[in-house]
Amino acid sequence: MLISAFRSLMRTPLRSLFTLLTIAVGTASLFCMSAMTQLVPESVNQSSRQLLGADLSVQAYLEPTTMGDIRRIVPETERQAVTGAWVTLATVRSELKTSNIILKGVDPDTYPYYGREKFPDIQNLQSDEILLSAQAAGRLQIKAGDTVSLINQQDGSLNAFRVKGLVDGVQESYTDSAFWGTAYLSYSKSIELTRVPSGTVNEVYLQLNDTADTGAIKENIRKQIVGSQAADLEDKKAEVLAGTKGTLLVMQLFSLLAVAIAAVTIFNTMTIVMAGRLRDIAIMKSVGMNKPSIARYFLFEAAFLGFIGTLTGIVIGNLIGYGMSAYIAKMLVLPMEWKLYIPSVVFSFVVGITVALIAAWSPVHSAIQVSPLELLRDSGLVHKQKRLPWKTSVKLFLVICAEMGFYLHETLLAANQDGVVFKWIASFVLSMLILIFLLVFLKLFVFGYGLLYRMLGRLKTVLPMRWFLLLHNLGSDYKRNALLTITLSVGVLFVVASQLFTDNLVNAVQAQMEKQVNGNVIISAAADEEEEMNRVLEGSSGVKHYARGYELKGSFVRLGGTDAAQKFLDATADRKISYLNTTNVTIQGIDPVSSALAYTVQEGRGLTEEDNGKLSAILREDYGRDLGLRLGDRVEVRINSDVVPLKIVGFYESGVIKSEGIRVTENTLKAYGSPTRLNYYVELSARGFQEHLTNLNRSLPASAVAYSLNSSIIDSLQKTLSTQSTFFSAMALFAFLTAILMIGNQVVLSLVQKNRDVAIFKTIGLSTGRLLRSILSENLVLAFLSGIIGSFAGLVFALLALSLFVKGNVDLNLTWCIIGILLSMLTTAAVTLAASLQSLGAKPLHMLRGN
Predict the structure, then answer these.
(1) In terms of Cα–Cα distance, which of 52, 36, 190, 43 is closest to 108?
(2) CA distance 244 to 51
(3) Which of 102, 152, 378, 714 has its CA 20 to 30 A from that of 493?
(4) Domain named MacB-like periplasmic core: which ranges (predicted)?
(5) What is the pLDDT at residue 383?
């Protein structure tokens, strides 16, 4: 049987090559994803202590605490050591860039308890030195040894710090730390810069005497510190794993798509194989072989095909795994090293072989049902395909659902805390429902596309004769063409949607922010240099208009009579809202009579001259939406030592990047504090923008920092997206590759099936070039339709995704829609040429003889 199976593969090498490559791509992705679902949890388990930095960590962002309170809550009998940190959002300036950054003040002698090797020479960190995350350093375009400046909230001046080293592979928990990056400095210096009382902390790290039972300590901390979160090693593991499940699930679904395409390819291959082996089946039946024996013979052939393809896929997948694990480790901020998992190898072989058997079952069953007399009399084709018995179909369907459920049970039900057996059963049921939905969905689309191709086929009697062969082939093979169109459309959809979303999100966010702040440049300066700033801006060319506002840091105390910390906690109980992780808020005092405003009112009204000196305020619209605040509600905020009750008179627009949270009149702000910084929102002329910005920077006072939205905030967004977009683009191209391989396989199979037709055409004088043009035209029409459909669907998906981040109209760059169509046509043309040349080069006599 083995020799026979090998000979069958070698009868049509090109057909076997495309089939094996499709299986290899599918099983390679399946193997990699199966291994990753084991590698990620293992890496998390091994590195959880380093990720947490202690036995127990406490985040008190909503209501900061003090080290004295922590020592009282967790007595010495329960802890070995304790250290705290102060974390907040700040502004950093390098020689080339200005940006926001997360500032973290720590005790260099003790922080962290575990994983200190990731913080270069932290124990010798001086008061004028900082450690900078590698992400932030890349964005600021600096390296170790360079100097950066941070704003001192005490007097509004800029303090210089030397970058002692770069920190990589550390994931902080403070809001937006993954976006902005983190600067680590001494605790005493962070307190001085941010103007908070000494001893105040919002992160605490503890080494415990007994790490086995931390439940009572965590519960006590949560009761004593409102809105705090306490996490031990198990909590950290669960948190990190929960953050990886979404990415892993997407990757698994892509791999299942590739396996499904491989199954369709095997089905088509075995259909043609069985059509060419009908006389062999007739002879087998004539000499007394029964149907099960004949079926086993040909199913072994399919299993052998699946085995070779799976083996190739595992070898390829193992090589790809090294690069993939390094990339995912960077994306998930996890220490990870690729290794070969035997269970993943076994599972891949099981899936690869069973998929091959299931895909071949129907063609084999159909072929062995015909009587020997009919087969020996016939020309070698099965005129009527016979379906599998429904019981057999159900059994095969359940096998597929069982394998799919086993594969997805860890990620499909990531939030479920039930046992493994329950997850398997639930995942099996979900897989069954998903497959039923997809099959119905596929049937509808095959019918719709098939109807389109049949209509095109009818045009052969209307259009000139030169179109006859093309339209005849499109109409006669309408089911095959419909399936190929769907497969290729899905590949184009993924490519176009991922690229459209990535390319347009940054531009859309930039346009939205410039509209919201009515400017494209932000300048932050010391308040005592206001006159100098006004003089510079009035005398600078290219400045169209500007608005200014004084700034103070504050915090919410009560919202509509409810404790603010509790309100924030309730709002984030069911969903993660990063900006609500802290009650801190930036309060800006503006001139209500100025015609230039740095905000756009979304609801209610803006501040007017009548509000001058009154306790009227406008809030960022997010607070109204997420906290249920309404016009007329009162909020209490702490400004320095005063608690100030403010009445909400309006809400202003907000975008992806969150800006100031509250705006009041400047007289109101000055009555409760002495602002040390003020912001200018400047609209520079788009023509010669960079030159205007350079000249402006040269003229600014020493305390001022100017940055364009594009070069700071948008640059940060671009760098954050680059890692994610590269990953999803790779997945999209992978899906497209499998679709192209399927098309190549289909071209070969189609030519094998039409061997006699091709021979007759060549015998009557039709040249190879004309036949090739006909085949190319047929597949290019298919690719063109697939490209249009896939690009349009990708455009719709991209618009839906962008609408989640950007409000209002989005000006899309549609270049990738055109690229998607061209990519579909060019790759289809290339693979069609490769698949056709060998078959079309054969002599007609050989074709008619069946050689």
Answers:
(1) 190
(2) 14
(3) 714
(4) 16-223, 482-657
(5) 44
State the chain's maximal CA–CA distance in angstroms: 106
H or E element that contains 200: strand 200-201
Neighbours of 208 (CB within 10 A): 19
pLDDT at site 287: 78
Per residue in 253-291, pLDDT (tens digit) is 877 877 887 787 777 777 777 776 777 777 787 777 888
Helix (H, G, I), strand (E, B) or coil at 385: coil
Give Cα separations from 608 to 453, 573, 590, 658 (angstroms). Answer: 65, 37, 10, 24
Cα separation, 531 vs 832, whole angstroms: 71
Answer yes or no: is pLDDT of 567 > 60: yes
- The string of DSSP letters for 706-774 reads EEETTTTHHHHHHHHHHHHHHHHHHHHHHHHHHHHHHHHHHHHHHHHHTHHHHHHHHHTT--HHHHHHH
- Asked whether the whole model's pTM tops 0.85, one would answer no
Question: Is-contact 571 212, C-beta < 8 A?
Answer: no
Q: Is 841 helix (H, G, I), strand (E, B) or coil?
A: coil
Q: How far is CA 91 from CA 157, 234, 714, in A?
A: 12, 34, 15
Helix (H, G, I), strand (E, B) or coil at 58: strand
Closest CA to 321 of 37, 623, 105: 37
Q: How many CB atoms lie within 10 A of CB 605?
A: 13
Buried b (16+ CB within 10 A) or exposed e, 101-127: bbbbbbbbebbbbbbbebbeebeebee
- 739's tokens: 């679709």
Q: How confident is the model at residue 851 (pLDDT cuts 50, 70, 90)?
A: very low
Q: Cis omega before residue 112 (within 30°)?
A: yes
Arithmetic mean of pLDDT, 721-730: 64
Q: How far is CA 824 from the centre of its chain?
A: 24
User: What is the Cα 835 distance to its own chain's centre?
Assistant: 35
Confirm if 258 and 735 have CB atoms less than 8 A apart: yes
**Start-to-end C-alpha separation, the chain:** 22
Tokens at residue 240, please? Answer: 């990190």
Q: Which pLDDT tens digit goes with each residue over 494-547?
A: 888 878 887 777 777 777 777 777 788 888 888 888 888 888 888 888 888 888
Contacts of 411 (CB under 8 A, 6+ apart): 37, 245, 248, 249, 252
